[in-house]
Amino acid sequence: MVPRRPPPHAFHARAMVMGRHLNTMLSQLPETSKLATKIKSLQRELAEANSRRQEVSLQDFEKKDKDSQAALERLEEELAAEKRDNAEKAGRIYQLEGYVMSQHKEGFHKALRQAAHYFKFDAGDGRFNIDEDVYQGSVMAVEDIPVAGQQKPTPED
């Protein structure tokens, strides 16, 4: 079967529709061209803005990095100064602890000498020990005497 050809007036009608469509398209061409130019202009502006934003972001980042580094260095210097100060204070505390202990021992020996003088006994007797005390009628090491309200742990604990 041979395909049928459309009548000649159908070609004419179709050509008329295509002509109108082409006319409409051509009339919009200058506007399309203007829009294309505007789009390209806006794309360039966007690219420039993005580039500036990246530069600013990078500059901000670099500035913040420098500021952070400077702050870190200041804090490290302060920490080092505090450590030096603490070491000096710890040395002074150690020195004062030694002084307090020597005064404590000297006070014990002074009291022992006075008691030996008044009660006529030998102060050099080995039974007198600064690290012992009388608790509940017995002489005990000071560290073995329970503190009020606390019980000393037993070996079973």
| Apparent shape | rod-shaped
Give the overall average pLDDT.
Answer: 82
> How would a textbook summarize the main sheet?
2 strands, antiparallel
Share of helix among residues? over 70%
Rg for CA atoms: 51 Å
Structural class: mainly alpha
Number of helical runs? 1
- Lateral strand order in the biggest sheet: 1-2
| Separation, N- and C-terminal Cα atoms | 113 Å
How many discrete structural domains? 1
The number of strands is: 2
Strand proportion: 5-15%
Order of helices and strands, N to C? HEE
Low-confidence stretches at least 5 residues in length (pLDDT < 50)? none
Folded structure, characterized:
This protein is mainly alpha-helical. It has one domain (12-122). It is 71% helix and 5% strand. The protein contains 1 helix and 2 strands. The protein has a two-stranded antiparallel sheet with strand order 1-2. A hairpin with a 2-residue loop joins strand 1 (132-135) and strand 2 (138-141). The longest helix has 112 residues, at 8-119. The chain is rod-shaped, with a radius of gyration of 51 Å. Residues 50-69 are annotated as: Disordered. Residues 50-68 have a biased composition (Basic and acidic residues).
Short description:
By secondary structure, this protein is mainly alpha-helical.
Topology of helices and strands:
Layout: H1 8-119, E1 132-135, E2 138-141
Antiparallel strand pairs: 1-2
Biased composition (Basic and acidic residues): 50-68
Region (Disordered): 50-69
